[in-house]
Amino acid sequence: MTDVLLIALFAFLGAAAAGLLGAGVLRLLRHRSLVVSLSVVAGVAVAAMLAGTLTVAWAMFLSPHDLYVVTTVVAMAALISLATAILLGRWVADRSRELTLATRSFGDGGTFAVPAGQPTAELAALARELAATSAKLDSSRERERALETSRRELVAWISHDLRTPLAGLRAMAEALEDGMAADSGRYLRQIRTEVERMNGMVGDLFELSRIQAGSLTLEPARISLDELVGDALAGADPLAREHGVRLVGDRIDEVPVEVDGKEMSRVLGNLLVNAIRRTPPDGTVAVAAHRSDGGVVVSVTDGCGGIPEEDLPRVFDTGWRGSHARTPPAGAGLGLAIVRGIVEAHAGRAEVRNVRGGCCFSVTLPTA
User: Fold this and answer.
1) Coil, strand or helix: which one is 287?
2) pLDDT tens column, 133-148
3) For the stretch 78-115, what's the b/e string if a residue is b when 16 or more beta carbons lie within 10 angstroms of its beta carbon?
4) Three-class SS of residue 264?
5) At what angle do helices 121-178 and 184-213 cross, to 10 degrees?
6) Using N-to-C axis directions, what is the helix angle for 121-178 and 64-107, rounded to 10°?
7) Which residues are CB-neighbours of 345 under 8 A, at least 6 positions away?
8) What does residue 171 show for φ and ψ, rounded to 5 degrees?
9) Which range is least confidently modeled, 68-72, 242-246, 327-331, 359-363?
10) pTM of the predicted protein model
11) What is the 3-state composition of the chain as percent helix, strand, coil, each rounded to the nearest 5?
């Protein structure tokens, strides 16, 4: 037993010395290629075995011939180990280099393409994650392009919509100033109407900027859904009468919700005004509210004739106003964008779908 312990001790000391030396070399070469690191690891393994073997051999006083045989065998094993480590290192380094080139093109704004070949499991996992990230970035770039297009359209539409009333205001102000207005009262009423219209547009811009900046502050309170919808219907009734549209709201469940009453009144008001303006005379705008598995759903159905399928994903985008034939004379395409922003701030979602004769806008809110 004593001899065995001594052999184990000598072998351990020799291998430990080789291991410590190898660890120092690895630390010095830690920033070099993977091929060098693998070669050092293989060399350390063989050196540790050789050191332990030679230490035991010297302690056992083997003959020079036996020591030569042992050294030759270990040297051959070291040669094969180093060759295998170099081949493996070069293969992994090549796969890593291909992944680096693919990632570089991906970082330059392209799409990541998984390199050909069979990399290691870790490199394969990294390639899959990069491919998933590339897909997310492509989607993000597409949304950014759509938002940029919406911003350009919004600026163009706002400029046009503001230029028209400003030109009218200037003409009426000059007429009043020169005393050329035959009916000054009518001019003043028209000026007030145009000012209110521009004030509404500026208010929508301010509300949208707060939503997009994340500075919209909600003051939620427990409100009955039928009360909230009833107030919105009462507020939209004069506009419906003016357009000859009938408002229907007889399918409203008495469900409590925890929302900001002022902001949700704006949501319902925007949906109702949008529906009334796009519904032809003698048409119907129906409002319904009920509890569902996903929360509380409030829907507004109009008679606009439907929205083209290719436009449905853009309905809630900033500045979207549909085709020219369906664009109302007032508004800058901010109402539905404000609706989505306020609803999402309440942890809800806004959706639209086509129905027979029109479309249905639905707002889903969490239950109280």
Assistant:
1) strand
2) 888 888 887 878 877 7
3) beebbeebeebbebbeebbebbeebbeebeeeeebeeb
4) helix
5) 160
6) 20
7) 211, 216, 218, 263
8) -65, -45
9) 327-331
10) 0.55
11) 65, 15, 20
